[in-house]
Amino acid sequence: MKESVGNQSIVFEKPPAITGAASTVGPKEGEGPLASYFDEVCDDPTFGQDSWEKGESEMMRRTVEKAIKKSNVPKYDIKYIFGGDLNGQLIGTTFGLKDMNMPVFGLYGACSTCGESLSLAAMTVAAEYAKSAVAVTSSHYGSAEKQFRFPLEYGNQRPLSATWTVTGCGAFVVSSKSETVCPHITAVTTGKIVDYGIKDSFNMGACMAPAAADVIYQNFKDLNVRPDYYDKIITGDLGSIGKKILIDLLFEQGYDISHQHDDCGLMIYDNEAQDTHSGGSGCGCSASTLAGYILQNINSGKWGRVLFVPTGALLSTVSYNEGETIPGIAHAVVIEQK
Amino acid sequence: MKESVGNQSIVFEKPPAITGAASTVGPKEGEGPLASYFDEVCDDPTFGQDSWEKGESEMMRRTVEKAIKKSNVPKYDIKYIFGGDLNGQLIGTTFGLKDMNMPVFGLYGACSTCGESLSLAAMTVAAEYAKSAVAVTSSHYGSAEKQFRFPLEYGNQRPLSATWTVTGCGAFVVSSKSETVCPHITAVTTGKIVDYGIKDSFNMGACMAPAAADVIYQNFKDLNVRPDYYDKIITGDLGSIGKKILIDLLFEQGYDISHQHDDCGLMIYDNEAQDTHSGGSGCGCSASTLAGYILQNINSGKWGRVLFVPTGALLSTVSYNEGETIPGIAHAVVIEQK
């Protein structure tokens, strides 16, 4: 099976199907505008566990189980799980998946991980290495604040450019064929690391926007399309500041995406009412929004073709404290109803 | 192109070639028994930088450049880099690769990452998504001790079961075809997360051995072979304690690998003379040993077929301090001269 291959892209001749998708979120996301789209809103932010991290793992476990159940794919047809989260050494993923008894590829692309996992799952299934594979990504407000900024107990003040890490998980069963009409992954564009030299960890949108612009530009070039090829171009978690930068950067390159562009980070909360400043973030932000809101709008026929672009800021507290910049990365996935 | 696919394995019909490999290590590895096999031994453990982490990134950058140069593959034919390291949020990889201007998939499988990156690079190239892809993995003693145990400045005492994290990097150019005779990746077996409930972070060998046994057993079953199918079965960093457990576990399943088995962690240092206790560890241990010692023995014709099995212990200081176990994971790659 040969695929048409651009410079950074793959267009699948036999596009894999998303046969099942599930989302689980925490209480704050359950008070936001997308609440009705999620499969489960858990009122307990630790999901019945005794730490944020164990709660995140439990959230991931539940979401994968639900996606598999919704897909109607037998478990023995699922050969691989591609999974990741924001915690150091991927402990959310390790302890979330360890009892699943399936081969695991652990991934880290910061908040771009949902795009990375979907890309690799689609590549694996389209190459006929597996009938089905699972892609899963999570983030958790409590574990991420402890990991990247300050433990919640400090009651630290946050500048208005800061985003709010989503407690959420999205899981997807990607299959070589489907019994029913469902969304398909028709192409993927893999991003480069892009570094504009920004060092402000409270302004992630500005760190990530150049990487998003780069991969969207490359997608247009590789597929030889213009922005109106897509009904929606939806980035992961640029927030209000990153959104402006993205639109400006692509406008300079001759592409106006202002009519198509949305950002999961700007959709998942009511930023004024919920006091989430620049918007939602975290790799669970784009993953849960895709599994909940975006795929349902594709399924309903409202959107025929979506360019989904999770965006990641590549830093750790160590690199930040050693004075390094915060480079960005983004991976684009084309999803359409077939 | 169809591949014969076992339960957890892929046997490539058109096996991708390792057209270039390079290794870079620090001064301690340069005093060990494999010194003459490495491309570069750097006397400065920070590789000319002002921190362990920046040194690790510089080591990775140099190693990738050297592997590409040795492969004679033009850079524009390399479509992806699959890379990872042990630092939280993969900062070694991010800052090592950020100026390469190539699409990046970030991976985390603890010390199994070299197997994970080679597997995904081989799968990608064999599926004709790319003419060539790079797989790279590094670890650094200074950054890893700070990350997982104690900063070096503490002068902490280490029990005899502890391993010594290798300062080393291995990079591999995986290509759809080669101009010359070289080692090929003929099959991969992807590991599950295996948890025997061990909680001792100073005894990583015991944490990882069950995962190594699991994936080697599965490789035998999927490929329908016995241990003597391989000239060597080489695990990543089980050390002396993990080696015994691995051999015992497989013996219980009816497979005696004692004649074929070696462990990179037991080869890279002279444990008595160099005071490295249970052996070398870290994902750079297996990566640099493969790029240096193992591939040269395959190239020379000494070994016809090797099962290479990097082994990872899945923990972070957070999971460890919250009382979690240390599960293991291992990925197996079959490498033979073609």
Summarize the structure in words.
The structure is a homodimer of 338-residue chains. Chain A is α/β, with parallel strands linked by helices. The first copy, chain A, has 2 domains: 172 residues, Peroxisomal Thiolase, Chain A, domain 1; 155 residues, Peroxisomal Thiolase, Chain A, domain 1. Helix content of chain A is 35%, strand content 23%. Chain A has 11 helices and 17 strands. In chain A, strands 1-2-10-17-14-11-12 form a 7-stranded mixed sheet, with helices on both faces. Chain A has a 6-stranded mixed sheet with strand order 4-3-9-7-5-6, sandwiched between helices. The first copy, chain A, has a two-stranded parallel sheet with strand order 8-13. In chain A, helix 2 crosses helix 3 and helix 6 packs parallel to helix 7. Chain A is globular, with a radius of gyration of 18 Å. The model of chain A has no long low-confidence stretch (mean pLDDT 94). Chains A and B meet through strand 5, helix 3, strand 6, helix 4 and helix 5 of A and strand 5, helix 3, strand 6, helix 4 and helix 5 of B.
Short structural summary:
The structure is a homodimer of 338-residue chains. Chain A has two domains: 4-175, Stage V sporulation protein AD (Peroxisomal Thiolase, Chain A, domain 1), CATH 3.40.47; 183-337, 3-Layer(aba) Sandwich (Peroxisomal Thiolase, Chain A, domain 1), CATH 3.40.47.40. Helices cover 35% and strands 23% of the residues of chain A.
Kindly, what is the distance between the CA atoms of the first and last residues of chain A, rounded to a whole number of angstroms? Answer: 19 Å
Structural class label of chain A? alpha/beta
Most extensive chain interface and residues per partner: A-B, 63 and 63 residues
Main sheet record of chain A: 7 strands, mixed
